[in-house]
Amino acid sequence: MNQWIDFGMVRDFATEKTNAYRLCTARDGWVERFGTDVLISYKTEAAREQLAAELAQWSSLAGLSFDRVFGRFLPKKNAERIAPQLISGFGGIPLERTVIERDLCYAIDFGAGYSTGLFLDQRANRQFVRRLAPLRTLNCFAYTCSFSVVAALGGGATLSLDLSRKSLDRGRDNFMLNRLATDQHRFLADDVLRVLPRLARKGETFDCIILDPPTFSRSHTGKAWQVEKDFDHLLLAALEVATRDAKILLSTNCTRLDERALEVMARYCLKATRRAANFQPPVRLPDFPPGAGARSLWMLLR
Prior knowledge:
Elements: H1 7-15, E1 20-26, E2 29-34, E3 37-42, H2 45-62, E4 68-73, E5 85-89, E6 96-101, E7 104-109, H3 123-132, E8 136-140, H4 146-152, E9 157-162, H5 165-177, E10 185-189, H6 192-202, E11 206-211, E12 216-218, E13 224-226, H7 227-239, E14 242-252, H8 259-273, E15 277-280, E16 295-301
């Protein structure tokens, strides 16, 4: 049997008012809780069947019951990604649900696409931004704007950038769920690498910048983005709009880039722009074993 989180951790999450977290990480997949639903991500049918069987045993021992279990195949190519499929449970329940993380609400949707709307491996980074309470936050590749939500709690302004207008609309919904007015918050559907130079020319600066780009994507004009060769260009552009003591998150799901590679890239960009920074890894998440989830590093400019 794979290693599942212990029941004490489940109680800890309940105490901190969080019901979205990783339950198990296996060699060929993982299992995550999203409120009263569960998502099994798997590379093989055998892995899916094993994880589903273990989930039934674990949830019985934990005294937990879930409305539905979804399965999501993990393909090798992004083009082959599809939305999660219902494995078991009640089919008549809406695919849209709300989960909580440290007493904040986030909308998820099992029918909107490959991702549900909230990346659980960024929980510690969201908490860092929440404690930071920045004055002006630039959230690049914002997706459904969870970083913008935590940044807005401190009263600061945010700018959320993403190619997908639909994702940004879901981000606005997350603001509404948490009763946050959007007066001081902008949502811009555009190419990040096109927007950053415009912001620099206008003299806009930010004291918190989130850089969590996809491994691969293609803009509306057909231009390809590849994180391994383009991340340094992104960071150089972001440094042009960073305040002297800004905090910049570097994060990626690319398995060929680890924290050391991110730091080497960052030091090159700092040298090119004649700036200096300290580096700080995020707090390790108790439900993610070492090596699982996104690789992240905080740049603390000085």
